[in-house]
Structures are given as structure tokens and as C-alpha cells.
Write a structure and sequence with these properties.
- This is Sigma 54-interacting transcriptional regulator.
- There is one protein chain.
- The protein starts with 6 loop residues before the first helix and ends in a 12-residue tail after the last helix.
- 35% of the residues are buried.
- The chain folds into 4 domains: 199 residues, no CATH class; 147 residues, Rossmann fold, CATH 3.40.50.300; 63 residues, no CATH class; 71 residues, no CATH class.
- A hairpin with a 4-residue loop joins strand 2 and strand 3.
- The protein has 22 helices and 11 strands.
- The chain is globular and about 95 Å long.
- Helix content is 54%, strand content 7%.
- Bound molecules: adenosine-5'-triphosphate (ATP).
Length: 514
């Protein structure tokens, strides 16, 4: 029997199949691209982790699309009218078509994403669906493929849009190209699509809401950004009758900070209430769990702070997807996904009895950890400049941003130095750049400075690298940072205020009245 693929096309299809299944945030993706293109591979601009946002297709991708198109045409010409084509060949052909479709429409999907995020509802009724369908019909209506589960145009369209959204949100919302950041991006991708994209496309695409995701990491490291990226990247079906996507991905994120509200208010916000359920409940109200569509997510921020009664109710939601409004007996159903975050060590809280074990295990099957800013800068110090640039762009216009970013970077270099521990993480860096913009300087708050200094001198002391003098000075400054006044610090240290004063820097860090 005549072969569908020549040897070269077979090798290309195999490389494309590997590429399709590879996490795009791991270096393996570029290796796959290199393998598929051989000598034609262009190194420039394809750094797998720091590729700048682009409005054009990378030359490697353009070349791959051309090659795929040619290989698909040759395969179609050689496809037997009758007789069986081996399953692996069919599978490879589908991989080629899938790659071609995704890449060909990627820039048009980018436009949909940008417009939908700007609130244009019409963006979610993309006119190019018809052309996409024609392409699917042209390429997929080959004996042995038409009618294969997963080859429907609506599903392929929804998958391509989802992958593009994930790429967009994971890549663009998190600044930084260090290894810890790369690991984070790869973990987010895996949380959205699992480690097997093929299986995801076949069976899991509409079931990921059954798995809760837990994001842990120090404060200010972007846990909420990660939660948003996951939520905005969920599968949203395309409804051909309605002529658009069934929901707006940009409107499906329902965040709640559990440490900021009383238990009654938390319950009311999450589950809703009946009129009269508590003082102030003047009308019936649907909570986040009820409003969240199947394609959306409820984000439970500071989950480690939630009280035991609510833990039980949330566990019920995770186990049976059911809940009741406050003051009501009707059982309602939650259809979305739960994403939770905390900077606490939940495993310890669980061992200490403050966090329910069954709830913990229900939450932690999909765990993502955000790295501290210090860990990122230790791996890639040049990221600080990239981050400052991106923060500067948010507050001043394009013409002014480079000069302001330079000013902020210089200020940080001269005043905080390369080893500043950034205990407040990215949030503190934002604060620092904002302060430099407004006041021309940044002073870490006493708490932040205290924590920063503590991290530094304790490490040095533990390594036996400090003199007794330096140790005394560091400890005095630490206590002053905690107490905020010379008198209080002197009392705590058992010395007089002049001794404290003498060990403070020329411009002591103030907190309150001295
Ligand atoms: N890698 C990053 N790239 C860009 N912005 C970031 C990054 N990490 C954090 N941020 C920004 O830092 C700020 C704090 O982020 P976020 O609120 O998501 O942190 P968090 O980990 O949820 O903090 P907390 O534990 O205190 O709730 C936000 O303004 C966010 O946009």
C-alpha cells in the first residue's frame, strides 16, 4: 500500500506531535522546534522563557506552518480512497492539522483576547469562525478522520482559543525570566492542561473544574495573578447556533479575600443569603458560588485564615458541588472551579489542628508555588531591570517610561544594592518604584526594613561571619525597627536611649513618634 507520508514528512509530523504535547514554558519546546526545522531553525528571538511579547509570528513558526501545509497537501494527495490507514498515521496527520490551525489563527485569537479584555462583548463572536470551519472541513474530511471524536470544528476552535489565552495570560501577566519563574509558568500550564494535552483535548477539557487548585507562596508574589491566569484560560465552548463563545472568559473570575471579612459576611458573599438571614440582609442574594458559570472560577484568597465552620461548607462544595444560601434550605449547585491561595504553611496548620485534614487533601491535589522575588533575582539579577521597566510603563506614558525606569533602577542600585532581600516581594518593588516616582526615594517601612535586615544579619551570624560589634549594632537596629521609638527600644534592650541612638544609621528608620 502507498504510504501517506514520505520519510521526511513522517519525521516532521512526529516532531510536530511532540511539539504539540510539550509544555510551551519548558526548554523542551524550543528543542522540539529545532528538531522539526533542522538547519532552518532560527536561534534569534526564540529564547524559550524570555521571548518578548510579539505581534508577529516568529520566523520559526512561520516556517513550520509552511512546512506543515505542504506536508498536509502531500498526505491528502496520497490518502487512499478506500482501505485502512494505520491509526498512528491518522494520529500524526491530525497533529499536523491541529498545529497548522492553531498557528494560522493565533494572531486573530490574540485580537479577540485583547478586545474581550477591553470589554468588547462582540469580540467573542469572531467572524473568522466560518473560515476556520472551512479549513477544518477541507483538512479533516479525509476517510478515517471525519467524525473522529475531538475533530469537530467547534471543539478545535474552542481548544485553539483556550491554548492561545493560556499562552497569553501565563506569559504576559507574570514578568521575569528566571528559572523559578519558568518553573512557575510551566506549573500553571500543567494545572490548566495537565501534563498530557492530548488526553486533555479528548476527555478532560470540560472536567478540570472538578479539581481544585491551591496556590501557596510568600505574600506579594503574584498568587492572585496566577489564579486569574488560570481562570482566564479555562475551556469555554463555542456555540455555533449562538454564533459565539458561550461565556466571556474575562468575566468568570470571582475573588474573595477570606481574611478581610467576618464569617457571616464570607458565607453571604460565597453562598448568598435569604432575606432576613441576618441583620442587614434586606433582600435575597446569590453569592459567588451561584453566580460563577461552569467556565469560571471562585478564588478563595487567604484560605489558611478561614474558620472551621466555613471549611466544612467549602469541603462540601468540593466533594458534592452543593451548598445552601444562608438562612435557606434549598440545595444549590456550584458549577465552576475552586482556586485557593495562602501564604501560610497549611500542612503545619493541619498538623496543629487549625486546618481540616480532609479539606487540605481535597485542596492540594493541584499545588502551585510562587517563588519569592529574592529567589528570582538570585537566579537572574537582570530581571530587576525588566520588572522595574514593566512597572514604570504602568504609570507613565511610553515616551517618559524609559527615562523614569532608568531613574528608578539607579535609585535602587545606589540605595538598596543588589542584595536587598525584598521581603515584600513584587508588591514591595511596585511600592518602591511608586515612591521613587512620587518622592524621589523609597524608605522600607520599619516592619519591612526589620525583616530585610533580619534576613541578612541572621544569615551572616549563623555563618559566624559577624564581629560582636556588628552583631550588637544589627540587633539594636532590629529591636528599634520593632519598637519604633528610642525609649521603647532602650527599655527592651536594657540600655539607655543614647546607646540605642549611637547604633542607628545616620537617618534612623522612623516609625511613629520618637
Ligand atoms: N511576577 C509578577 N509579574 C508582574 N506583577 C507581579 C508579579 N508578581 C506579583 N505581581 C504584582 O504584585 C502585586 C501583588 O500580587 P498579588 O496580589 O497577586 O500577590 P499575592 O501573592 O496574592 O499576595 P498576598 O499573599 O499578600 O495576597 C500585584 O500588583 C501584582 O500585579
Amino acid at each position: 500500500m502507498k504510504k501517506v507520508f514520505s520519510t521526511a514528512d513522517q519525521a516532521l509530523a512526529e516532531a510536530i506531535a511532540r511539539l504539540n504535547g510539550t509544555n510551551p514554558f519548558l526548554p523542551a519546546r524550543v528543542d522540539c522546534e529545532r528538531a522539526a526545522l533542522g538547519a532552518e531553525f532560527v536561534e534569534a528571538g526564540c529564547d524559550w522563557n524570555t521571548r518578548p511579547p510579539s505581534i508577529e509570528m516568529h520566523p520559526n513558526h512561520r516556517r513550520l506552518v509552511e512546512r506543515c501545509e505542504a506536508a498536509i497537501a502531500r498526505a491528502r494527495a496520497a490518502w487512499p480512497e478506500r482501505g485502512k490507514v494505520p491509526t498512528e498515521t491518522v494520529q500524526l496527520y491530525v497533529e499536523l492539522v491541529g498545529f497548522w490551525l492553531y498557528q494560522t489563527y493565533s494572531l486573530r485569537f490574540d485580537d479577540v483576547i485583547r478586545r474581550a479584555q477591553a470589554g468588547e462583548r462582540d469580540a467573542l463572536r469572531p467572524g473568522f469562525y466560518r473560515v476556520f470551519c472551512d479549513d477544518v472541513a477541507r483538512y479533516m474530511e479525509v476517510p478515517g478522520i471525519a467524525g473522529r471524536p475531538g475533530s469537530e470544528a467547534t471543539h478545535l476552535f474552542a481548544c485553539a482559543f483556550q491554548i492561545r489565552r493560556a499562552f497569553h495570560h501565563v506569559f504576559h501577566s507574570l514578568v521575569g525570566g528566571s528559572k523559578p519563574m519558568a518553573r512557575l509558568r510551566a506549573e500553571i500550564w500543567q494545572s490548566i492542561f495537565t501534563h498530557d494535552l492530548g488526553r486533555y483535548r479528548r476527555v478532560l477539557f470540560d472536567r478540570m473544574g472538578d479539581f481544585a487548585t491551591l496556590i501557596t507562596g510568600p505574600s506579594g508574589t503574584g498568587k492572585e495573578l496566577v489564579a486569574r491566569a488560570i481562570s482566564f484560560s479555562r475551556y469555554v465552548p463555542y456555540d455555533p447556533r449562538g454564533g459565539g463563545f458561550s461565556d466571556s472568559f474575562a468575566e468568570g473570575f470571582f475573588p474573595l479575600n477570606l481574611s478581610a471579612l467576618s464569617p457571616t459576611l464570607i458565607e453571604s458573599e460565597l453562598f448568598g443569603h435569604r432575606r432576613g438571614a441576618f441583620t442587614g440582609a434586606v433582600a435575597d442574594r446569590a453569592g459567588w458560588m451561584e453566580q460563577c458559570p461552569a467556565t469560571g472560577s471562585v478564588f478563595l484568597d487567604e484560605i489558611g485564615d478561614v474558620d472551621a465552620g466555613i471549611q466544612v461548607k467549602l469541603l462540601r462544595v468540593l466533594q458534592s458541588r452543593t451548598f445552601q444560601r444562608l438562612g435557606d434550605t434549598d440545595t444549590r449547585h456550584f458549577r465552576g472551579k475552586v482556586i485557593a491561595a495562602t501564604n501560610r504553611d497549611l500542612a503545619t496548620a493541619m498538623r496543629q489542628g487549625a486546618f481540616r485534614e480532609d479539606f487540605y487533601y481535597r485542596l492540594c491535589s493541584d499545588l502551585i508555588e510562587t517563588p519569592s522575588l529574592r529567589a528570582q533575582l538570585d537566579d537572574r539579577p537582570e530581571d530587576l531591570a525588566v520588572m522595574v521597566d514593566s512597572i514604570a510603563q504602568r504609570w507613565v506614558d511610553d515616551a517618559e517610561a524609559p527615562a523614569f525606569a532608568r531613574e528608578a533602577r539607579r535609585w535602587i542600585e545606589q540605595n538598596l544594592g543588589p542584595h536587598y532581600p525584598w521581603p515584600g516581594n513584587f508588591r514591595e518593588l511596585e511600592q518602591c518604584v511608586r515612591n521613587v516616582l512620587i518622592r524621589g526615594e523609597y524608605r522600607p517601612t520599619a516592619a519591612v526594613a526589620g525583616a530585610a535586615a533580619e534576613a541578612d544579619w541572621l544569615t551572616q551570624a549563623a555563618a559566624g561571619e559577624m564581629t560582636a560589634e556588628a552583631l550588637l549594632t544589627a540587633y539594636t537596629q532590629q529591636i528599634f525597627g520593632q519598637c519604633g521609638t528610642l525609649d521603647a527600644a532602650a527599655l527592651k534592650l536594657g540600655v539607655d536611649r543614647r546607646t540605642v541612638r549611637a547604633r542607628l544609621p545616620a537617618k534612623p528608620l522612623k516609625r511613629g513618634r520618637r
